Amino acid sequence: MFESLSDRLSGIFDKLTGRGALSENDVNEALREIRRALIEADVALPIVRSFTDKVRHRAVGAEVVKSVTPGQMVVKIVHDQLVEMLGEEGQPIDLNAPAPVAIMMVGLQGSGKTTTTAKIARRFTQRDKRKVLMASLDTRRPAAQEQLKILGEQNDVDTLPIIEGQGPVEIANRAMSAAKLGGYDVVLLDTAGRIHIDEPLMVEMAEVKAAANPHEIILVADSLTGQDAVNLAQNFDERVGITGIALTRMDGDGRGGAALSMQAVTGKPVKLIGTGEKSDALEDFHPKRIADRILGMGDIVSLVEKAAEAIDAEQAAKMAKKMQKGHFDLEDLAEQLKQMEKLGGMSGMMGMLPGVGKMKKQIDAAGLDDKMFKRQIAIIQSMTPTERKKPDLLKASRKKRIASGSGVEVAEVNKLLKMHRQMADMMKKMGKGKGMLGKLMGGMGGGMPDVDPKQLEEMAKSGQMPSGMDLPKGLPGGMPGLGGPGLPPGMPGLPGLGGPKMPGLPGMGKGKKR
Q: Which stretches of the chain drop beneath a pLDDT of 70?
């Protein structure tokens, strides 16, 4: 979502950091460009003015003049002001209240309210181990209650039984009673929406609020609607009193102005962001991490957290033991490829790595896309179990059969096998190695290495690996590792990153050891 803004700011900062000293005119010229970039990104005009005034006040002061690298100092000032604009610290949904905790979901029709309700319920159930009940109060939209029921079944979350003819307030009262009797920790109330704000909607919201006495009122807003989302938040807050905001469709190609303006204009924190259609595509909103992404610093901490959630620790431990013995067959390679898909594929991971934004053209030219993983998995699945365990059996006739079965050329099969051989050789060296590599492989079976998140954030800014987590120099082109900073076991050598067209990424490809 922030790609266009990130590209604009990156170009502005490149001009600044290339200079040995900055004059007041240099700073003012850069701020004019920053102001244009923010306005084009649909950030509210009062917020843009306040932002640039605060940056100017600090950027033309003594701290930049005396700085050894004034350009970098300006980048830091802009980063700090972005964090301040986005809300300083992330604020998750508060569950610290007597059970059952009622959470009321409000918003316009089509903003993704019902889907977001189910995503939050799934997260509370699976991550926080809470017993959750969902209830649809939307009696106006056809099949709205059935939609929530189906989402509940898909995510193993209980939903309040539907009784025809009941109004929103009756359903809310019944949901709270059922939650108390059933021993539920959390009740999520999915209220009705409208195409636009009207008086009957606001009266209904106020009545439901009075009946359920919710601990949190979360406004679900579509981030692609730009400044309309900010106006919506102000209206709902004045009439109902929201406690937080969930922004949907943050994976879209909108300009991102709503996300940047929401906290500053309304004073209400953005608590969650929806990053896709799948039920697990929901993230906590961390202002500092979003600022890092916008300024091209990456988001290593979120990547590590995502990896910890997505990867099966038991499966990873088994793979680690095999690697220690020097075994790495095509079944293991297929597992690695599937793990990459779980982490959001190539685009999802690359967006979180420091400095990758500036290499976008090189990445596009290298043809690194998420379809590549699917093709490689299809090739491996077209092999027999014996062939996967013993790739040496694959001669010309077998390769032709596999290529035909997976819908690719024989050259693609050869590329995959070459990639696997290079990885297998690397695994043998890592398994037998002493010193840091031996310790890394030895510790992989025991779960996530202990890495300080602050250390990761500093690493993201400096482009360096955390101390003691360096990767080997000269990883095979096209199949190098993402093993580095605190990634869970079974993740050295993730595929498809690196090679001659992508030199110098930290810990990947044929870049230098950091």
A: 1-4, 18-22, 61-70, 226, 252-256, 296-316, 323-326, 342-370, 430-514
CA 323 to CA 321: how far, in whole Å?
A: 5
- The ranges assigned to domains in the chain are 3-86, 101-296, 310-462
69 vs 34: CA distance, rounded Å = 20
Tokens of 74: 């300006």
Four-CA torsion 157, 161, 164, 170, nearest 10 degrees: -90
Report the predicted TM-score, pTM, of the whole model to 2 decimal places.
0.62
Domain 101-296: homologous superfamily in CATH: P-loop containing nucleotide triphosphate hydrolases (3.40.50.300)
Give the relative orientation of helices 435-443 and 313-324 as an angle to the nearest 10 degrees.
140
Q: What's domain 310-462's superfamily in CATH?
A: Signal recognition particle, SRP54 subunit, M-domain (1.10.260.30)
Question: One-letter amino acid identity for 31?
Answer: L
| C-beta separation of 189 from 144 below 8 A | no
Distances (CA, A) of 134 to 181, 183, 210, 252, 434: 15, 14, 18, 27, 54
Residue at 221: amino acid letter? A
Rounded distance, CA 428 to CA 91, Å?
A: 45
